Amino acid sequence: MALDGNINQKVGNLDAFSVFFKIIIRPTVQPETQLQALKCIQDIIYHQFYNIICVDKIGGISSLFEIFKETGEIMVIIIFYFNVLFF
């Protein structure tokens, strides 16, 4: 849905893409659901690195840092996945 049917794997629907980040930052969401949302983000970025720009456009990076300010629990998982992506 976030890719909006694009053959080149680029995010075409920023609103749908932002839902993954909303799932991650909402404290009432089950941890397994948050992890699956994070895996979706990882896959979207892995298959088309251009999508990292979309993460910045929707405020995804700042959302992740807000989590870190509130609680460091899920941030460990997030840092692990983003390290896998970028290094």
Structure description:
Helix 1 packs antiparallel against helix 2 and helix 1 packs parallel to helix 4. With 87 residues, the protein is an all-alpha fold. The protein has helices at 14-25, 31-47, 51-57, 60-70, 73-86. It has one domain. The mean pLDDT is 77.
List the SSEs and their pairings.
Elements: H1 14-25, H2 31-47, H3 51-57, H4 60-70, H5 73-86
Helix pairs in contact: 1-2, 1-4, 2-5, 4-5
The count of helical stretches stands at 5
DSSP strand tally:
0
What structural class should be given to the helix and strand makeup?
A: mainly alpha
N-end to C-end Cα span: 27 Å
Give the H and E element order: HHHHH
Mean pLDDT: 77
Helix-residue proportion: over 70%
Largest sheet: none
Specify the overall morphology: globular
How many separate domains?
1
- Percentage of residues in DSSP E strands: under 5%
What's the gyration radius in Å?
12 Å
Low-confidence runs? none
Descriptive labels:
mainly alpha
Task: Describe, in short, the structure shown.
The protein is mainly alpha-helical.
